[in-house]
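Final report, closing paragraph on structural work. Over the funding period we assembled a curated collection of sequence-structure pairs, and we close with a single example.
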Amino acid sequence: MEDNKRYPELRRRLSPGWWTANRHYTMYMVREWTSLFVALYSLIFIYGLSLWAMGSRADFLNFLKNPAIVGFSLIALVFTMYHAATWFYLLGAISPVKIGRSRTKPWQALVLNLILLVIVSYLAIWLLVLR
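Its predicted structure, as stored:
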């Protein structure tokens, strides 16, 4: 028996924009695309750390003052915040915490995680810069 007779193709072919038909798929794809900006910003940061380690702190600071890098950093910040917010919301939807007979809502996990993000960010800034 041939394999193609035993296992016929049951799925229909999807168009390239299949993910635009459903809001949840669209949000998922946008979140995945934002991870590219997070990765690129991470590479810029690693490059900066390598310059800093080699003693070229001024070179890295001048690199960061470039208007293209400033613009990219602002775009990356917006995309990173979107990525984090959708991920935190998804976390609350996937694994809600059971308290008594009720379960937490996804937005509660989002708010709690964003508050923790702000606290941890402030502590990191305080430890590295303000102290």
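The CA atoms of residues 41 and 76 lie 7 Å apart. Residues 21-95+103-130 form a domain with the 3 helical TM bundles of succinate and fumarate reductases fold (CATH 1.20.1300.10). We thank the funder for supporting this effort.
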